Amino acid sequence: MGGKGRHAATPVHTVYLDGFWIDIYEVTNAQFKTFIDANPQWSKDNIPNEYHNGNYLKLWNGSDYPNGKANHPVVYVSWYAAMAYAQWVGKRLPTEAEWEKAARGGAVGKRYVWGDLPDPSKSNYIHHGNPEYTSPVGNYPPNGYGLYDMGGNVWELCLDEYDAKFYRRSADKNPIAGASNIETLIENFTDVHTDRVARGGSWATPGPAHTADRGRDTPTNTNGWLGFRCVRTMTAQEKEELPNQDTDNVCDLPSQTVKDTFDSEESYQEVAENSRDAVVYIEAIAGMLTLPWRIHKMFTNRRSATYTNLHRLLSRMQSNLPEDSKKGMGMSGTGFFISPDMIVTNIHVVVRAKTVAAKQFNSQEPVLYTIEGVTAFDAKNDLVVLKVAEECATPLNIGNSDDTQVGDSVCTVSYANADFKYIKGTISSSGTNDKFHQINTQLSPGNSGSPVLNSKSQVIGVAVSTIGQIDDSTSHRANAIPSNTLNSLLERVDEVESFTSWQRRPSIRAYVVSHRADTKREKGKYKEAIAKYDAALKLNPDLLTTYLNRGGAKLKCNDYEGAIADCNTALELNSDFISAYTNRAVAKMALYEPESTLEDINFAFEHLPGATESFQSYLIRASAKAYLGDLIEGNRGC
Questions:
Q1: What is the rounded distance in angstroms from the CA atom of residue 250 to the CA atom of residue 400?
Q2: Do the domain assignments include residue 252?
Q3: Would you list the DSSP string of 270-331?
Q4: Residue 532: in which H helix or E strand, if any?
Q5: How far apart are CA 589 and CA 620, in angstroms?
Q6: Which of 121, 141, 408, 488 is the most exposed place for a label (fewest CB within 10 A)?
């Protein structure tokens, strides 16, 4: 426990704790409403004055929490109310020692719950433009134990009395300040009048709170940055039922997951072949390759033989064109069946197409599936579900991406360039829900939309091989949208919408506009590119790659502050892209901020595996060191 130089958190010392369970998330408004509905004496209108400071549930309308905030942590709640809630659900507040043990997530001696460097993409605190209020629980990456928001979002109340000198004299085992034992404190909590401990920092903290930082609140205090989570002591029987685990140190264990491994080359081949019948080649053909309208109409009456012949002709035309002539005319990717008549792929694969074909090459004669239209899409996460007229007998099963761990083996299966292949890889960092997995593997654009499979042939991600491939692209890292994001999308499957209608949607048109901006940027027309990126982001403000690429274009125009702003936004959307850190570091160095430059680059080297593959990363770090006077280290970096 503790941290060197942290106020009231010294000396650093070792304590021993009995096993305990802790909530994965902070208690939310929706959960607290369930409590007050069942216990109206704790509602806003009925709570006795001695149990709050006059601002209890300040933002609520009677017994209703603020609109749209069901999944936000409950705030303006006093220690007394937190204790009552915990008691009602059969739990309790954590001791200060339990909270710190859980918060560290196994990262002993680190400053923050994620490491040693501040990073606004890792938690909700006000620094670097993070939202100046609570965010939904679980909106930021978890710590090493799978616990969310242990740093930031809201300060979390603990059982302990606040004692500035407690670290100097705390017990070696199960310490708690201001109580002889936990049971007596819980039974008589309404008799407590001394200050209580809060931990973790909040959205209002100007910088991230150190894991050892200790807050102090009266038990009646309520405010907009104070909340809580609950724990429960592990019973002896529960310890016995945990298989093959060190129950004396149970909180050191990683979250329970289904471990997926490939033990041989043959196992990769087996997974690939088992999935082959469900994987298709997506051919998106642009307007100038389509036939005149009257002829095209004759070939789109869904008679499969005629329709197949049309696409054979168009494919032949496209394949025979010179490479330079193909740019902007169409592209190919991969898709896969997730039900007998629905295919998943990336939006960017099909968004510019006038004609789309889905083919399978499991025999000499390709099987062509007729695309009827779009039945669901996620414009933020680059996913679209296509409805097909024919059915596939063996759709893929979707696994739980929350069960993946860093280091798990995966297999990406594709029909890149009409050639069936599989690519081995490992999870190098794991995102949460709407965040990307990072995979140590190399994907070409034709792999976009490929299923990423575990050893049980379950889809745990959808490959997005073009995301993040900008000026400082890395060759051996790819990205995948977690399968739980796909599961959420499938819950919204609706009636079939035609491609023409779908492509007119502003959030979809944004992909086309952003692509045109990419073309301008590649030609060195940076100001024109920025204007088009601006237009794309007005249509769809969630396009991660657009922020990254606009930031790169702004760097070329010497708009360093603008580049930093775009990199900050990109990192809020996904904290794992090296390009955002390196581009931001270039801009900071140009503004003569070498200390901040080193923070970004050192963080990338420490946390992002692909950083060490980037020449630019080494060059930036060497420049910053040299500017700070460390000429020997700077030269060594070069």
A1: 24
A2: no
A3: HHHHHHGGGEEEEEEE-GGGSPPHHHHHHTTS--HHHHHHHHHHHHHHHHTS-HHHHTTTEE
A4: helix 526-539
A5: 8
A6: 488
> Is the pLDDT assigned to residue 19 strictly greater than 80?
yes
**Measured CA angle at 601 (ends 598, 603), to 5 deg:** 100
pLDDT of residue 476: 52
Q: Of 490, 521, 550, which one is at a domain's C-terminal end?
A: 490
- Are 479 and 542 found together in one domain? no
* Maximum separation of any 2 CA atoms in the chain, in Å: 88
CA distance 29 to 557: 46
DSSP secondary-structure letter at 586? H
Q: Are strands 458-463 and 397-398 parallel, antiparallel or unpaired?
A: parallel
Q: What is the amino acid identity at position 616?
A: Q
Nearest-5° angle of CA 444, CA 449, CA 450? Answer: 75
What residues contact residue 609 under an 8 Å CB cut-off, 6+ apart?
428, 429, 438, 440, 477
Q: How far is CA 303 from the centre of its chain?
A: 43
386: enclosing H helix or E strand:
strand 383-388
The CATH number of residue 473's host domain is: 2.40.10.120
Instruction: Tell whether 525 and 460 lie within a shared domain.
Output: no
Q: Are residues 355 and 462 in the same domain?
A: yes
Please check whether residues 24 and 151 belong to one and the same domain.
yes
Q: Got the DSSP string for 201-256?
A: --TT-SSPPPTT-EEEE-TT---TTEE---EEEPPHHHHHHSTT--GGGGGGSPPP
Cα→Cα distances 273→267, 397, 412, 465, Å:
10, 15, 12, 22
Alpha-carbon span 344 to 363, nearest angstrom: 22
- In this predicted structure, which of 25-29, 34-38, 385-389, 583-587 has the lowest mean pLDDT? 583-587
Burial class (CB in 10 A: 0-12, 13-18, 19+), 133: middle
- The gap from C-alpha 205 to its chain's centroid, in whole angstroms, comes to 22
> What's the CA gap between 570 and 353, in Å, rounded?
27
Q: Which range of residues forms the domain containing residue 632?
A: 505-637
Write out pLDDT tens, residues 40-63.
Answer: 999 999 999 999 999 999 999 999
Q: Are residues 277 and 177 in the same domain?
A: no
What pTM was estimated for this model as a whole?
A: 0.54
Q: What is the per-residue pLDDT across 271-292, written as a single tens digit (0 to 9) for each?
A: 998 898 899 988 877 654 444 4
Q: Is 161 helix (H, G, I), strand (E, B) or coil?
A: strand
Q: How far apart are CA 287 and CA 122, in angstroms?
A: 43
Same domain, yes or no: 189 and 141:
yes
Residue that the structure tokens 């379950």 belong to? 458
Please write the tens of the pLDDT for every residue from 362-415.
Answer: 665 677 888 889 999 999 889 999 998 888 878 898 888 877 777 788 999 988
Amino acid at 290: T
Which comes out higher in pLDDT, residue 560 or 638? 560
Q: Enumerate residues 6+ apart whose C-beta is below 8 A from 407.
A: 426, 427
Both tokens of 32, joined, read 């607290």
CATH of the domain at 601: 1.25.40.10
Q: Could you tell me the CATH number of the domain that includes residue 196?
A: 3.90.1580.10
Number of compact structural domains in the chain: 3
